[in-house]
């Protein structure tokens, strides 16, 4: 059976693969979106409750500008579908004396014209007395940034794309064969689908689908995330009393209690290698102990708070953290879209626009940092 022919078939309905069809259908294309487990499923990197959208990227202005535009597009989209998908919690960078990252971020925000405040520790203490400031010498507050409700947002974008005419199929696409121009893809249930272009936005599965090309270029790592319960009744650990905070130097970040899910804390250091299909998604006691130490340091009142939820997710890291958005070198009509590298979620709307422009043949604004050629096999994280 050869199913209908499409202009574009997009494989993977995470944040990159949901925004891509949403942007593509706007130019009247016939688009099919396929996901093995469903948009925002538990194994996808986009499947958690929340993701930070912040503007600070040190000197990496391309990501600051992309985050700025993406925030506008997320807000516009949320208003269009009449859903609350963004919490403007503010994002507070806790800066150590010798940490250049917040310093450079402030310079970029100033240059681009994004609002921010520099706070002394006394000012932080006055505004956010629940935050522990051990080792911190100043802070940078992005008042307009905040949290996207990740899984729900991906599902909302997919639904909006479907309502606008995109077809959706739940099935697993087999790794494609051959070279030249790809004629069709096949699925686990035996469907054959042909399209003019194919987009593989398969997150941590990309190296499994294209092992020869990507096994050395995308490294999925295991990341643990914890949610803690605050004392009943108080508002000290909800937004706006508590902003999202990032302790870049100590590789930790946390969210206020959003939508009653608990106070989220995680470590932003690459974990061990991880298989997104079969990897163990039960958190470890070592992971909990590290996060609890961090809780005691940054939110001391919660040092003995109970864990209310936990998750194991995966980053899909490129060698340095730049995204991968490029044609497959063997196929003239297969696009590889991924490498979110622990910071990709916020950029979904701009990634969707970028991919749609490439498929439309637009040569303007091609970003060399997204090219396959720029992806080394040696791992040296440079974008955070
Ligand atoms: C713990 C953690 C914290 C993070 N924090 C942030 C943050 O605060 N801010 C931020 O901006 N980013 C953050 N990120 C990064 C961000 O979540 C990811 O970069 C982003 O979600 C990646 O989206 P994706 O669409 O590329 O992949 P995914 O969301 O993984 O989607 C890939 C999809 O492809 C499907 N698929 C795979 N293979 C097949 C196949 N053969 N056939 C059909 N479908 C297939 C899967 O089912 C899945 O739904 C974080 C990531 C993690 C893990």
Please explain how this structure is put together.
The chain is α/β, with parallel strands linked by helices. Helices cover 26% and strands 25% of the residues. It is built from nine helices and 18 strands. The strands form three sheets. The protein has an eight-stranded mixed sheet, with helices on both faces. Strand 10 and strand 11 form a beta hairpin. Helix 1 packs parallel to helix 5 and helix 1 packs across helix 9. It is globular. The termini are far apart. The mean pLDDT is 96. The structure holds flavin-adenine dinucleotide. The site of flavin-adenine dinucleotide has 38 residues, from helix 1, strand 2, strand 3, strand 12 and strand 16.
Keywords for this entry:
eight-stranded mixed beta sheet, 18 strands, globular, alpha/beta, about 375 residues, binds flavin-adenine dinucleotide
According to DSSP, the number of beta strands is 18
Unreliable spans are none
Distinct compounds present:
flavin-adenine dinucleotide
Strand order of the largest sheet: 6-7-5-13-14-15-12-16
Largest sheet: 8 strands, mixed
- H/E topology pattern: EHEEHEEHEHEEHEEEHHEEEEHEEEH
Helix content: 25-40%
Please, how many helices? 9
Distance between the termini: 45 Å
Backbone structural class: alpha/beta
| Overall 3D shape | globular
Cα-atom Rg, whole angstroms? 21 Å
Mean pLDDT: 96
């Amino acid at each position: 059976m050869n199913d209908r022919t499409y202009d574009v078939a997009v494989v993977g309905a995470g944040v990159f693969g949901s925004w891509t069809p949403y942007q593509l259908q706007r130019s009247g294309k016939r688009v099919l979106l396929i996901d093995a487990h469903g948009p925002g499923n538990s194994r996808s990197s986009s499947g958690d409750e929340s993701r930070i959208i912040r503007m600070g990227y040190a000197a990496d202005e391309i990501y600051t500008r992309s985050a700025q535009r993406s925030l506008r597009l997320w807000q516009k989209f949320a208003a269009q579908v009449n859903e609350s998908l963004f919490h403007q919690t503010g994002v507070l960078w806790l800066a150590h004396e010798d940490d250049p990252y917040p310093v450079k971020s402030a310079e970029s925000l100033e240059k681009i014209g994004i609002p921010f405040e520099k706070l002394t520790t006394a000012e932080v203490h006055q505004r956010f007395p629940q935050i522990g400031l051990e080792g911190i010498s100043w802070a940078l507050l992005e008042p307009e940034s905040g949290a996207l409700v990740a899984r729900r947002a991906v599902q909302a974008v997919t639904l909006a794309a479907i309502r606008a005419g995109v077809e959706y199929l739940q099935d697993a696409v087999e790794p494609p064969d051959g070279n030249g121009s790809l004629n069709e893809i096949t699925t686990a249930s035996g469907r054959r689908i042909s399209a003019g272009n194919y987009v593989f936005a398969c997150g941590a599965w990309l190296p499994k689908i294209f092992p020869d090309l990507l096994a050395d270029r995308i490294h999925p790592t295991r990341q643990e995330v914890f949610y803690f319960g605050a004392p009943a009744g108080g508002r000290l650990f909800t937004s706006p009393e508590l902003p999202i905070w990032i302790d870049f130097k100590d590789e930790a970040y946390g969210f206020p209690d959003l939508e009653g899910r608990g106070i989220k804390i995680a470590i932003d250091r690459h974990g061990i290698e991880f298989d997104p299909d079969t990897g163990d998604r039960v958190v470890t006691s070592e992971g909990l102990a590290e996060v609890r130490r961090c809780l005691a340091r940054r939110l001391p009142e919660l040092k003995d708070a109970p864990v209310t939820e936990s998750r194991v997710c995966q980053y899909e890291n490129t060698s340095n953290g730049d995204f991968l958005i490029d044609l497959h070198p063997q196929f003239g009509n297969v696009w590889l879209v991924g490498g979110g590298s622990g910071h990709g979620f916020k950029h979904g709307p701009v990634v969707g626009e970028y991919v749609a422009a490439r498929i439309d043949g637009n040569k303007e604004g091609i970003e060399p940092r997204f090219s396959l050629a720029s992806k080394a096999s040696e791992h040296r994280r440079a974008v955070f």
